[in-house]
Amino acid sequence: AGCAWFSIAKSDTDEEIDLRQEINFDTMEVVLRWNAIIGNKYRISASKDGVLHEIDTVVADSVNEEYKVSLTQGSQFYVTPLGKADTDPEPQPGDDLALQIRLADGVVIIVVESKAGDVLELFYSDDMVIWNPSGGQHSVTQDGPYEITIPFQGNTPMKYFRVKRTR
User: What's the pLDDT tens digit per position in 99-110?
Assistant: First the structure.
């Protein structure tokens, strides 16, 4: 007993995947199936109560990948292509992207720990599916916290933000 639906996703890697999601109500699981490139990494994420969280990262060993996840982990599920598994450099100290978000009078302030020479790009979304650039690139000139200020109006619907850092 269950149902299935399809979606197509494209990521920064320009890899397009056709994602099939099936719900098995007997086991209370969602089975995610997608076309994959052997050796590429894929991030499995879920949205629960409006918050997106990562479940797992897998490396494809088949052109037809499958991943099972409990329905208790979310209400929307995503598979994001991340590119070749063997091309990622080893993380270095300070590579984590740490964000703080503050509300001030009529603005949202996103604070990013950065190093001189970093380039930051801010994106926003209403649904965490379609991401739009917001304000162009920000070039960091000194080490330490870097603030990005976004005008905010109280009647604006919920927005999601993400920051891309190039080092």
Answer: 777 777 778 788
